[in-house]
Amino acid sequence: MSKKNLYALCFLFFATFMTLPQSFAQNIPRGINLTGKERIWERQSFEAKEIIQDIQVLRDNGFGSIRLPIAFDQYLNKDKNFLRELKQVVQYTESNEIVLILAYFDHGLDNNNAQRQAKSITRNWRKVLKNIESDSKNLYIELVNEPNINPSVWEDIAPKIIKGVHKENRKIPIIVGGTNFNSLFELSRTKPFDFQNIIYTFHYYEPYIFTHQGTEWTGKQNATLGIPYPFQQNKMPNLSVKAKGTEGEINHRDYALTGNKTAVIDKISQISTWAKNNQVQLWCTEYGASHNAAKDSRIAYLRDVEEVLSTYKIPGFVWEWEGNFGIRELLNK
């Protein structure tokens, strides 16, 4: 496929984001996750040249906002060149007016170590920010990715981390999500923190039985393959025998109600109402569907989520360019 045709196809998939929502003093273009540097088990080196080349490819495909998941503990502890390489990436995105989110993965938070880990996360963020110019205009940090701890614990330690970050850089916009893996439902039960320059985030993978079908790491509940989007009775597969007795059985039964755009609107409208009522900024820093789903279904799902996010003026970041949920394969097939 030629570069011209590739861009045209990308435009058709993601055209709804050409009307840019407002965030603080700037517009936020279409966003995507540039994954790979969060996978600590692969022990990849962090090389600015490689990351910048990937960002250039994304920009050529119409993405002007990049979320960069990073295993900060891994690189800060084991890669002596990490801060220097990261600074080069930030300098590139700044000079090219590309929005960049640095997202803290591998934080290791749990209910038992929360206070200790919060101090470690704070130290690491301060190291990172000390290394980067404080007047960055297009840089955001996501405090931690998908905290999965008791909400009361998270609401106790998150302000402590934010205060620590502010000691290094009071102006840096900080992105914060709710517990239960950045659940929009948990976020909707949260009272906003009393800080300036806070953006709230949620991750959207509903309905899970479609977006995570066949993913081994989510267990037997999502073992059923061939689930279409939107729901079509004549195309629905039988429930996998592996999913019987799990939540997947209930999700399969209810898919006629959850597997459509109306359900997407219902859920996202609720968190949008929460944001408006609390007068806070709201982003969706992850949404997507596994490549185990059929290509046409994935395209239909991404388009619906994008259109709904655009309707509610919520900037969105597709998960991901390459990988198990990679959209690059949608454009190249």
Descriptive keywords:
14 helices, alpha/beta, eight-stranded parallel beta barrel, 333 residues, TIM Barrel, 2 domains, two-stranded antiparallel sheet
* CATH architecture grouping of the largest domain: Alpha-Beta Barrel
As for the number of domains, it is: 2
- The total count of strands amounts to 10
Order of helices and strands: HEEEHEHHEHEHEHHEHHHHEHEH
Side-by-side strand order of the widest sheet? 3-4-5-6-7-8-9-10
Mean pLDDT: 91
Could you tell me the CATH topology label of the largest domain.
TIM Barrel
Which overall shape is indicated by the principal axes computed on the Cα atoms?
globular
First CA to last CA: what distance? Answer: 8 Å
Q: What is the beta-strand fraction?
A: 5-15%
- How would a crystallographer describe the biggest sheet? 8 strands, parallel, barrel
What CATH first level of the largest domain would be assigned? Alpha Beta
The CATH homologous superfamily of the largest domain is termed: Glycosidases
State Rg.
20 Å
